Each structure stands twice: as structure tokens, then as C-alpha cells.
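In this section we walk through a basic example: taking a raw amino acid sequence and producing a predicted 3D structure, encoded as C-alpha cells. The instruction is simple. Fold the sequence below.
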Amino acid sequence: MQRVRITALSLLLLINYFAFSQAKQYPDGHGDIVKLPQGDISFADTVISYTPGNLAPVKHNANPKDAVCKPNFRADSISGFVSLGIGGELVLAFTNNALINLSC
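The resulting C-alpha cell sequence is shown next.
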């Protein structure tokens, strides 16, 4: 009986999670759009680590926090993204996200 309650509670929480998220469309940077069913929660939540490459990026494009949350790229100032440089590494965490197969 306890196992049934836990499963039912988990299912209820999962249904609420999907019910309160909203699909959104985002520009892909190439003139097209990308639709994400879970909206803003589809993006990375935190930075685990960032190591700029051997030829490091310019300072205003070396903020790893620009890789979390919804996109904020600005073409007019060429900002709102993080560059790795040559051989750099960025590790992000996705803590409240779900993968959805859109082809179903």
C-alpha cells in the first residue's frame, strides 16, 4: 500500500510539473526558431565549472553565467553568450528539466 501511495504522489507531482510549464519559441540565432515544450525551464540552471581555452575569449564573452537560464543573446552588442575559446570547457547542470520526444 505504501508503494502505491508513493507512486501516485510521484505521478501527481510529475503531472503538475508539466501542467504549469508553458511551451515557448526561441530564436536560434540563424533566423529560425526552436520550440521547447517546457519553455524557460528547458535551459541549464547552474554552472558547474568553466575553463577558458588556450586562446581565451574576450572578457565580455567569458562569463559562464551567460549560459544559464533562457537565452539572452544581443546582436547589437554581441553579448549574452559565453565563448569557450580554443579548447575550453563548460559544464552545466540541468536540475528541473525533462526531455520530451517531439516526434511522437
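Looking at the output, two observations stand out. Helices lie at 2-20. The beta strands are 24-27, 33-36, 46-51, 89-93. In the next section we compare this with other chains.
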